[in-house]
Amino acid sequence: MTINENILEASKRTKTIASQLLEQKYILEILSQFGKPLIIWSYALDLMVDEDIDIMVQTDYPRESAIKAMNTFIEKETVQKYEFGDFVKFPRIGRPQGYIVNLRIEYQNAKWEIEIWFLQDIAIYRKQLHTYKSKINQENTLKILSAKYERKISGQTKHDRSSSEIYEEILNIY
Predict the structure, then answer these.
(1) Cα atoms found within 13 Å of the Cα of residue 94, Cβ hemisphere only
(2) pTM, entire model
(3) Which residues pair with 39 in a beta bridge?
(4) Please, which pLDDT band fits residue 155 given cuts at 50, 70 and 90?
(5) Structural domain total, the chain
(6) Helix, strand, coil share (%) of the chain residues, nearest 5
(7) Helix (H, G, I), strand (E, B) or coil at 16
(8) Structural domain of 161
(9) How many DSSP H helices and E strands does the chain contain?
(10) Are 73 and 103 in contact (CB under 8 A)?
(11) Cβ distance 167 to 54 under 8 Å?
């Protein structure tokens, strides 16, 4: 098996595990009670390297929905750690103006993070996801996965070099 085949197979395996996690922990089922969830970025683009899943939830009441969703996850007792962030009252450059619930889950011998953003409007993220999808081909897929693996083995974090930065650089989106 070539390096490229290994990278593609590892990414496919990570997405399969991510799908199992989402299903077994009822993540989308729970989120659907509070808005319209959309899985984005690496999962949606078949570019998974890290054990993380990004979800946007469109809702008319982002703060209330985020709090209720987090409380539901707490009550279900299927997740080890929960974090809540308010990026409306405390905005931060490069982050959506909304509310975030981070779930940390030990699953199949790995530490997973599910980052869930609650926003009134996610149209800009749907458009960005569509733009990325339209520019991805086999060559770009391998370049992106390689860059993400290099980031991982170098010890860099997603905060040092985000996946979006990698996508935009390789797909020539500015």
Answers:
(1) 8
(2) 0.93
(3) 55
(4) confident
(5) 1
(6) 50, 20, 30
(7) helix
(8) 3-171
(9) 7, 5
(10) yes
(11) no
Separation of alpha carbons 84 and 92, rounded Å: 15
Find out whether 73 and 82 touch, Cβ atoms under 8 Å. Answer: yes
Pairing of strands 110-119, 52-58: parallel
Quick check: 53 and 16 in contact, CB under 8 A?
Answer: no
Q: Is 77 left (phi over 0), alpha (psi -120 to 50) or beta?
A: left
Q: Return the closest-CA partner of residue 136 out of 45, 54, 56, 48.
A: 45
What gap in Å lies between CA 131 and CA 139, rounded to an integer? 17
* Closest by CA position to 46, among listed 85, 76, 21, 16: 16
Give yes or no for a contact between 125 and 97, defined as CB atoms under 8 angstroms apart.
Answer: no
Both structure tokens of 75:
């009550």
DSSP 8-state secondary structure symbol assigned to residue 33 = T
- If you average pLDDT over residues 123-147, what whole number do you get? 94
CATH code where residue 84 lies = 3.30.460.10
Give the length of the chain: 174
Whose tokens are 């339209």? That residue is 134
